[in-house]
Amino acid sequence: MLNYAETTSVSTIVTVSVLPQNQHQDATASTFSYAIGPIDPAQIITMHAHLSTGDECSLLLPVHLPRHILDDPAFRDGYEYNYLSEEECGKEEEDWMTSVTRLVNHIFSSLTDARLYRDLLTGEIVPDFLPWQVGWLLRDLTRLAETDRTLAYVGIGHLCFLLPLLIQDRPVTWPRYEPFRADILHTRAIKAYRARVHFYRKQGKNYDEAQRLALC
């Protein structure tokens, strides 16, 4: 990972309202009732960051991004490194941008791939892996929004769904019979979404129409 933390400055067009680490009630409720669909635009702001190269990078930012991720220097490293490497990685990203299921699976694997938690040279666990990946993914989704805002908002919504499952302990109010694991709930959301797509396909809709109609 590149370290630009000392030379990256950030300004936002509106005040960021993020959740403190000990206040997750709203996030927990939205996680429990989650179905794949675009995040409410009112829950997104645009952040403008001046990078170490002198460039300016825009970033779509969910307002309830946990404070400890937003404040982590690795978060800034992730979106800056993504921005600076966009020309090199653009072709590789085309596949996951083609459908809702590919998009949300890409986000899940990017946040949970255990192989990425270790430094490639030393084999040591990378403590700032998750903030770095969140920064990288939000820059990916910001770029996607330039051509497909709905799909980008679906991706941001799925990112916000997964984060509480990855960074919180199981809430005491969570039903005992319900799992609180990212892999199980991600798979459940995918299956429910595919069932809705199948329903619309049976109604004679083509795949593109069906996957848009299946969004909640």
What does this protein structure show overall?
The protein is mainly α and 216 residues long. The protein contains 9 helices and 3 strands; from the N terminus they run βαββαααααααα. The chain has a 3-stranded antiparallel β-sheet. Strand 2 and strand 3 form a beta hairpin. The longest helix has 21 residues, at 182-202.
List keywords for this structure.
216 residues, globular, 50% helix, mainly alpha, disordered N terminus
Secondary-structure map:
Layout: E1 9-12, H1 25-32, E2 44-50, E3 56-62, H2 67-70, H3 73-84, H4 86-93, H5 100-112, H6 129-145, H7 149-167, H8 182-202, H9 207-213
Helix pairs in contact: 1-7, 3-6, 5-7, 5-8, 6-7, 8-9
> Helicity level, as a percent range?
40-55%
Beta fraction: 5-15%
Q: Shape from CA axes?
A: globular
What string, H for helix and E for strand, traces the elements in order? EHEEHHHHHHHH
Radius of gyration over alpha carbons? 17 Å
Largest sheet: 3 strands, antiparallel
Give me the oligomer status: single chain
Structural class: mainly alpha
